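hey m, so remember when u said the tokens were messed up on ur end? i reran from scratch. heres the input so u can diff it against urs
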Amino acid sequence: MGGISRVKLAKLALLVVDVTSPILLFLSALYIVTGYQMLYPEAALIPAARRLHVDLVLRVSTVVVGYLHGLSGLIIMCERRIRNRRLRKAAVVAAALGLTALAAFPLTLDLYYGGYSGGARWRWGRG
């Protein structure tokens, strides 16, 4: 049966982790700073913090980058720690299914309520 080799999969996963780490760090820092600025508006660090914090593109980007980072990290962990081939493959599939289900929830909410499917649009302050 064809497919990607273990070595290529591990190298690809490591590359994805390396690329997504600084992006995820930046997005996490942005959400922390804008969230605290919404709690304490007198600390005016970022103009339009509320608009940034609830931005649809940033939320979806954070979920997608977090999904790629998490899945790649779990693949690396499985490749390094699990010696049994069948158990390793099962663990990778379980991780992929679990993370996909976890990421699907906020993405579905954002894409439906964000207005891409014609669903109800929610705007800050207008409930």
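this time it looks ok to me. The mean pLDDT is 86. if urs says something different then somethings off w ur setup not the seq
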